């Protein structure tokens, strides 16, 4: 006589029970894994948004720095122009007389090397040039060819300042992407303790914005890859519109700011992956 073990069913019955339990476990676990997947996707979306937000802030901060830097350079050039244009010696040696020795000593031997001004131009009341100092030498030049139509607008703006008052320099960008300049023009004016006297002569100073200058700016203000471009900056780049004093749009200053979010994104993604692999 054979006896069946107490409390145990037959092997087929046990197998059926096991399969039923497995099916039930899979059925019960589906909501859990759906929740895990949704959570993972949501967390990655949040991490991506956080990275994008950090990068946008980095780009905006970099653009604010560039805007302030360009404004400081414009103000500095305007101050230099005013210093020389609102000066009795300048009126005496450029308007009342025309002293080439004074011009050479004042403009040729000093301006380019010390102040990085490589274009100095004096125009009379008819906008006819009286002297040009170009790259440290007295030379003939065509202002329209060198600076484009923007220079005429800059000179006209300088002439529109109030007469017999302290002059106000007109400053802005002139030229084109190949030969871009920051220029400032001022109406030559003399002064006494009681009054100012305007002349009809305009003095113009111009600083180039070339590859060498851009490289110095990039290093000093942490603007990697700073250059000039005709197309707008890509979404990972920062940019600044190049607009001349006559409202012509030439292109863009473009550079590659440091993007903290982009650098952090792989680490954040790896951290999320490790967490969910552990859960799995």
Describe it for me?
The chain has a single domain (54-260), classed as PAS domain (Beta-Lactamase), CATH 3.30.450. Helix content is 51%, strand content 21%. It has eight helices and nine strands. It has helices spanning 11-85, 88-96, 100-108, 111-115, 143-147, 150-159, 211-221, 260-279; strands at residues 119-123, 129-134, 137-138, 170-175, 180-191, 196-208, 227-229, 238-243, 249-255. The chain has a six-stranded antiparallel sheet with strand order 3-2-1-6-5-4, sandwiched between helices. A hairpin with a 4-residue loop joins strand 4 and strand 5.
Bin the strand percentage: 15-25%
- Which structural category fits the helices and strands? alpha+beta
Main pleated-sheet profile: 6 strands, antiparallel
Mean pLDDT reading: 86
Distance between the termini: 51 Å
Which CATH architecture is right? 2-Layer Sandwich
Strand order of the largest sheet: 3-2-1-6-5-4
Series of secondary-structure elements, N-terminal to C-terminal = HHHHEEEHHEEEHEEEH
Number of helices: 8
- Rg to the nearest angstrom? 35 Å
């Amino acid at each position: 006589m054979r006896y069946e073990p107490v409390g145990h069913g037959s092997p087929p019955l046990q197998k059926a029970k096991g399969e039923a339990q497995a099916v039930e476990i899979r059925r019960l676990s589906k909501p859990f894994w759906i929740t895990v997947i949704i959570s993972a996707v949501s967390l990655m979306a949040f991490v991506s948004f956080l990275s994008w937000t950090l990068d946008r802030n980095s780009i905006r901060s970099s653009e604010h720095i560039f805007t302030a830097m360009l404004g400081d350079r414009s103000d500095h050039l305007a101050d230099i122009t005013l210093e020389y244009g609102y000066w009795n010696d300048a009126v005496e040696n450029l308007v009342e007389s025309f002293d080439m020795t004074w011009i050479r000593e004042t403009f040729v031997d000093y301006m380019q090397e010390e102040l990085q001004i490589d274009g100095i131009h004096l125009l009379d009341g008819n906008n006819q040039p009286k002297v040009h100092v170009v790259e440290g030498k007295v030379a003939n030049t065509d202002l329209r060819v060198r600076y484009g139509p923007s220079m005429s607008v800059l000179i006209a703006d300088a002439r529109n300042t109030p007469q017999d008052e302290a002059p106000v320099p007109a400053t802005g960008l002139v030229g084109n992407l190949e030969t871009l300049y920051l220029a400032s023009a001022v109406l030559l004016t003399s002064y006494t303790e009681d009054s100012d006297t305007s002349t009809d002569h305009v003095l113009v100073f111009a600083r180039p914005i070339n590859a060498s200058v851009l490289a110095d700016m990039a290093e000093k203000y942490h603007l990697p890859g700073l250059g000039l471009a005709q197309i707008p900056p890509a979404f990972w780049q920062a940019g600044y519109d190049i607009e001349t004093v006559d409202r012509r749009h030439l292109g863009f200053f473009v550079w590659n700011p440091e993007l903290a979010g982009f650098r952090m994104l792989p680490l954040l993604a790896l951290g999320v992956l490790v967490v969910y692999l552990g859960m799995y």
